[in-house]
Amino acid sequence: MFNRQTTYRFKLLLCCTCIVLVLLVVSASAQTGKDTLPAVIVSAIKYADVTSSPVPVQQLTKKEIGSLNSFSVADAVKYFSGVQVKDYGGVGGLKTISLRSLGANHTGVMYDGVMLTDAQGGQIDLGKLSLDNIDQVTLYNGQPNDLLVPARSFAYAGVLSLRSPIPQYDSLKPLHVKASVKAGSFGLVNPSVLLRYNFNRHFYNSFNAEWMRSDGQYPYNAYEAGGGRVKRQNSDVDALRLEYDAAFAFNDNDNIRLKAYYYNSDRGLPGSVILYNTYSGQRLKDENFFIQSSWQKYFSSRSKLLLNVKYACNYSFYLDPDYPNTQGKLENKFHQKEYYLSAAYSYDVSKVLSLAYSGDASFNELTRSDEFVLDFPDPKRTILLNDVAVKLLLDKLTIGANLLHSWYKDKVKYGTDGKDIDAFSPGIAVNYQPSANSPLRLRFFYKNIFRAPTFNDLYYTFIGNTSLRPEYAKQYNAGITYKVNGRGFLQSSVFTLDAYYNTVKDKILAVPRQNLFQWTMLNLGKVQIKGLDAALQFYPASFNNINISARLSYTYQQALDVSDKNSALYKKQLPYTPEHSGSMHISIARKKLMMAYNVLLSGYRYRLGDQLPENLVKEWATQDVMMGYNFTGGKNLKCRLFAEVNNIFNKQYEIIKLYPMPGINYRAGLVAEF
Q: DSSP per residue over 464-479, as a string?
């Protein structure tokens, strides 16, 4: 790992390098008389995945992401239907995804084919994941459609897949450089640089570095009467990300990919805004590193092998300098390590029948090293996953089915081990096209899956409960897709509608013991979830060199707590779950100019507790606009200048109660490629 001085010097060097590169590009473009860059057109989603998939699939490409006013992966996925992103405010605030009200622990996040994991908390902070090196964001309900995937891909209720770009070989241009500088409200500075080199047709490698800093001191209206305008406190973030990618292709049927990833951040944790007290002194430092490699081998057109190996280590340091104890502070230092190996094999028995097997083995360990540690369990967990899958492809019918076996074994240094888990999880998905030429398709899927208790659930000091059982979820989905190409003024359009029913039993909840200061984890919850996801994407035919694309999504969710008939919350909506939510995106491009208008909407909901007026979180809607302009400088220089204004009507709103979100704010930047 880097020390603090080395990290600071690298950040300074990165910022200066990006600024110099951008200035060189602008200077070169000013000396060029020609301007030949083609028009910016927002590319279409890959409709084949959306319509022919037995499970609901939503996808954003790189160009679409660029028109969504999205700063991190968390911002982009808000435009998917059925998704809730919990956002605690500010650039550095925690951002997690919940799919169809099942909770963040039931949603897996996969980066270049390998899952990101957090054995301690089980939730992936999407705010840490930059879009700078992401080429595609895809959300699967259930699991990915491809059979040649790790067994871990089948172990979640849904999977968010992130893909970095794979460049095409160009013998005339082996070196590709991309530099960008962005700046914006609340002290935002965000330079990045990408260097990619193709040694030959078989080998390429790339290096991507990004630094982001923001003081996060955005203004908002004080909660108390007559409080005026105040600024958010302790919402700063300083983050550095480094990525190295390489690939070597022995031939068209045999290739190896390597990814090394490093992330370092120091951020404030903005607390809830309590009346007359906006102060929060809590800090969190993260240092994450992983290296992963994938080998894919096609023995023939029918026989395919995939091997994955990964090592990850995460460090987190949490400090509360105002904790009311004798030391006058509270600190936690945690170290995580993971060793992971996966093998998957698929075989096409015939044109209509394919079989696959995948097996994963992983080992996780967690240690604590701060001055408050006392007989911490230092848990270790071994996980073995085995999955068999089958896919049947007929003229009008696609059927996919799988059976996953999961085995979990914990071992602790002090105290009691968590319970072993030995479980089978089945799933089946069907897609049916009534006639060969019909634009209508019907789909259905069922899945029974669980999420294991995390290390925090089991072993966190004074809170953990080693008797916890897994939290089981059953998913039922029935939907339709309707795709039309080239009719009238529409170049293409896709409509999807899915109705779903989920049940959760043995939900893992934190509940108070003797008082509100002593909590523990228990299996108490039972949840019934009914919902409807609808999405419409359409692309009118081009006229006068004007290209338009539009995307609408709507979600209805009824997520009810059915744990206790005697409780005041019986058959009440789950906390932070709006019944109605949606989004809208429109982009217009003509030659070098592109403009976009984006809207996010959420109905009212309640925070944890009785559904009283003081626990109400009001409905909200935000509207964003952006504009981009492309120009060239010389033969190989391409530049993009962009500006965006977010929350243009300065709406004050909350996603989490008493955590105000930023009002009107802007970002602008320049991207140069050669």
A: --TTPPPEEEEEEEEE
Q: Is the pLDDT of residue 461 over 90?
A: no
Which amino acid belongs to residue 106?
H
In this structure, are residues 536 and 493 in contact, taking their beta carbons and an 8 Å threshold? yes
Domains of the chain, with CATH numbers?
A: 4-673 (2.40.170.20)
Task: Note the pLDDT of residue 25.
Answer: 44
Model pLDDT, residue 405: 97
SS3 26: helix
In our burial notation (b when 16+ CB lie closer than 10 A, e otherwise), range 521-547 reads bbbebebbbbbbbbbbbbbbeeeeeeb
Sole residue written with tokens 């509270």: 330
Rg (CA), the chain: 25
Q: Return the DSSP state at 603.
A: -
**Spatial distance between the Cα atoms of 594 and 598, rounded to a whole number of angstroms:** 13
Residue type, 227: G
Q: How many CB atoms lie within 10 A of CB 342?
A: 25
Contact 79, 66 (CB under 8 A): no
pLDDT digits (tens, 9 = 90+) for 146-202: 999 999 999 999 999 999 987 777 777 788 899 999 999 999 999 999 999 888 888
Q: What is the mean pLDDT of the chain?
A: 87
